[in-house]
TrEMBL record:
GO terms for cellular component: nucleus. GO terms for molecular function: chromatin binding; histone binding. This is SAM domain-containing protein. GO terms for biological process: negative regulation of DNA-templated transcription. Residues 26-74 form the SAM domain. Pfam families: SAM_1. It comes from the Eukaryota. It comes from Danionella cerebrum. SUPFAM superfamilies: SAM/Pointed domain.
Length: 97
């Protein structure tokens, strides 16, 4: 895995044809594995505890991530900005095409 300048990490998790599979089809375990693979081992368990599957992940707001998962602010901000938001954007783009 390669850490990017912005703190996010490239991952090979849930990859289909060189791209991430549609998060809407992820089970809770896939969400947990995605965050473990991206360097958020500790925080990944919060997604398990709250039973966040791919569809739930795509519906999460910034506030949900910052307060609903009971994780520290720093990691929560990175999780939302570098992972949840881009996954939501990717999903919307793939739906539009």
């Amino acid at each position: 895995m390669e850490t990017k300048e912005n703190g996010s990490v490239d991952t090979k998790s849930s990859v289909e044809n060189g791209q991430l599979s549609d998060p809407a089809h992820w089970a809770v375990a896939d969400v947990v594995n995605y965050f473990k693979a991206t360097g958020f081992e500790e925080q990944a368990n919060a997604f398990l505890d709250q039973e966040i599957d791919g569809k739930s992940l795509l519906l999460m707001t910034r506030n949900d991530v910052l307060t609903g998962l009971s994780i520290k602010l720093g990691p929560a901000l990175k999780i939302y900005e570098y992972h949840v938001k881009p996954l939501q954007t990717q999903h919307l783009k793939s739906d539009a095409s």
